[in-house]
Amino acid sequence: MKFAIVLVACLLAFAYANEEADVLKEFSEVNAEDFKYALELSNSIKAQQEGHLEADKENWVVKGEYEFDTKDGKHVKVTYTADDHGYHPTVQQ
What we know:
Residues 1-17 form the signal peptide. The chain is α+β, with helices and mostly antiparallel strands. Helices cover 17% and strands 54% of the residues. The chain has one domain. The protein has one helix at residues 2-17; strands at residues 23-30, 34-41, 46-53, 60-69, 75-83, 86-92. It starts with a helix and ends with a strand.
């Protein structure tokens, strides 16, 4: 459930911050034990995430990435995993 909340929060933040951006690509598939989504906007923002419920049916394992250009023109890409041990990002600039 925590990951669903984070997912919705991220999507709302992207939408709010980019009111003038057009959606170029969008994909989502949500099932009881796994999910995938991808989003690409016309202002160079891209995000994708996928996750699955572990065999114990209590813990999710999620991996994904998002990228964007900062206001000063730098490109930032964050790749991450999240599991019962926490959120583990890697930032590339």
